[in-house]
């Protein structure tokens, strides 16, 4: 099914290329039905589009909508009418009319891009140019559906720990705006390889993608795979740009404390309000209700975040309380100290054949044992693929059988999930260990 041609209209015939990664066109089978992933430009979802997604989830699927860890949405439990689903989403402006250009729209921004008072740059104009480049350049459609780019404007609300094939981060040197860049890493701790003036940002992205496709073999679909056999200096040599690689650039590190992404968040003007669906799952009523609140109290848009949550922007301070009351009544988590905000979980065995445990149900039980704490600090994963988060959480419970988990704590000196602290734990045992004070869960 995921690789069969879809024909939503009499004038359009598209054959999505083979991939295990869901997309708008590529509906991938799972235990609970098909999965369709809707890639949002910079995480932006207009209120009308939120209503269209809600209606599609009700009419063509089982009513389960998920916020993903890269600021997108996906619909689960899709039935047999794939074409009807896709056409309804296209009609709402939620993707291009060919699968290849949809696959490559993997560009992450801060959910407060253009609004964050900490930002150095409003990166939204450049982001639009990069998305146009990815969608409109047939050669770049050869990139893997997982190949991802991050554009960081120096915002305080920003995911800096997700690895990307290419990342660009704003810096200011000598009263001029530059974009530092790195490969197969993340802005938080990745090696800075150089910088270009802001006005050459689009040219840098084009040159990097062209160079990757020139050098990568068919088996090397990601930048990290290519760099295992290709020196970085060889990769960036001769790009033909105003590349700066002096000590001021190579020694630069992305700074700034992480601002909260749940609850009230200051903007340049007005306020933003971050809310999270429990365990990343939205019902159509939740999403429709959030769209209504965004229209009434905000600017009529929702921003999907890489923390599987939403942000409503441009809310007047005087309206914040009422917006919070209405969103909380929908079942959305509106404050960082709510126990369920502390836990992240993958789909689990109820929807995924690879999962060894029902992680969603287990996460609810575990949250009640843990109480409040750092949002997103405990990750339940049904298998080693770690689909729910793209970075390593402070604590990971890796399922080994129904209701039983191995506990790992993040360790910067160890690869993978970190240090194995205990094996074959029940939820009560895991909750008791995680409830103990530990510096690892507060970083």
Topology:
Layout: E1 6-9, E2 12-14, E3 28-30, E4 33-38, E5 44-46, H1 47-60, E6 64-67, E7 73-78, H2 82-91, H3 99-103, E8 107-108, H4 124-136, E9 149-152, E10 164-173, E11 176-185, E12 194-197, H5 201-215, H6 223-227, H7 232-236, H8 247-250, E13 263-266, E14 271-275, E15 281-282, H9 284-297, E16 301-304, E17 310-315, H10 320-329, E18 343-345, H11 359-370, E19 378-381, E20 395-401, E21 404-409, E22 419-425, H12 427-434
Parallel strand pairs: 8-9, 9-10, 18-19, 19-20
Antiparallel strand pairs: 1-2, 3-4, 4-7, 5-16, 6-7, 6-15, 10-11, 11-12, 13-14, 14-17, 16-17, 20-21, 21-22
Helix pairs in contact: 1-2, 1-9, 4-5, 9-10, 11-12
Can you give me a brief rundown of this structure?
This protein has twelve helices and 22 strands.
